[in-house]
């Protein structure tokens, strides 16, 4: 006899997907920084930003079982430039962090592509299962160029706009541009073996 479930019993919540958790970990500290800055100013905002990065490391370790290299790099740079910002009472230091991290990834990816090494594969292979070596090489070149443009864009905005404008563009603008560029690269992923979970007859 088939067992019937009691409609009055509480339903189990489906756990959040790893990709959603990773996205939340990546962007939550920035959003917290934005809110803290608006409420308290850049000094307290920077301290809150640094604390939120420690929390992000802990959550990543607990929820995902590991901390990604990109998160570790962001953590180190935020601790360093955040410390300089607090010590010198100068917000320009925290503004340099995106330029450095974008430049680092641009050099790593474009340099790897120059030597036919799909460096992006070593960072994001778990997220895109089944992608071929050719696909990873294309993505490495594409994202390397994207990070180079983002580094130059951050420097332009940092030197030509106010801190408020820079922060708003850094959070919301960078988030939108990254999402759009990611969607634009989906055909490359699908064409080069990405497993979508949809079986063809």
Automatic annotation (TrEMBL):
Topology class, membrane: Multi-pass membrane protein
Record's keyword terms, sorted: Cell inner membrane, Cell membrane, Membrane, Transmembrane, Transmembrane helix
Xref: InterPro entries: YciB
Spans through the membrane: 71-88, 94-115, 136-157, 169-190
Location of this chain's protein in the cell: Cell inner membrane
Highest taxon above the source species: Bacteria
Recorded GO CC terms: plasma membrane
Pfam families reported for this sequence: IspA
Claim: Transmembrane is one of the keywords in the record: yes
Record carries keyword ATP-binding: no
Family recorded in the similarity comment: Belongs to the YciB family.
HAMAP family: YciB (MF_00189)
Job of this protein: Plays a role in cell envelope biogenesis, maintenance of cell envelope integrity and membrane homeostasis.
The protein's name in its UniProt record: Inner membrane-spanning protein YciB
Gene: yciB
């Amino acid at each position: 006899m088939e067992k019937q479930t009691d409609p009055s019993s509480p339903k189990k919540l489906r756990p959040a997907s790893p990709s959603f958790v990773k996205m939340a970990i990546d962007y939550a500290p920035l959003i917290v920084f934005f809110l803290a800055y608006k409420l308290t100013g850049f000094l307290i905002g920077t301290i809150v930003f640094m604390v939120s990065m420690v929390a992000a490391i802990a959550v990543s370790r607990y929820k995902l079982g590991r901390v990604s290299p990109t998160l570790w790099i962001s953590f180190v740079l935020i601790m360093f430039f955040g410390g300089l910002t607090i010590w010198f009472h100068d917000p320009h230091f925290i503004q340099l962090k995106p330029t450095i991290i974008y430049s680092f990834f641009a050099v790593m990816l474009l340099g790897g592509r120059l030597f036919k090494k799909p460096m992006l594969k070593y960072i994001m292979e778990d997220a895109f299962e089944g992608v071929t070596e050719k696909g990873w090489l294309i993505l490495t070149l594409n994202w390397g160029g994207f990070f180079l443009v983002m580094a130059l864009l951050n420097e332009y905005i940092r030197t030509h706009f106010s801190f408020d404008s820079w922060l708003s563009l850094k959070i919301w603008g960078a988030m939108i541009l990254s999402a759009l560029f990611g969607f634009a690269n989906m055909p490359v992923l699908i064409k080069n073996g990405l497993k979508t979970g949809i079986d063809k007859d």
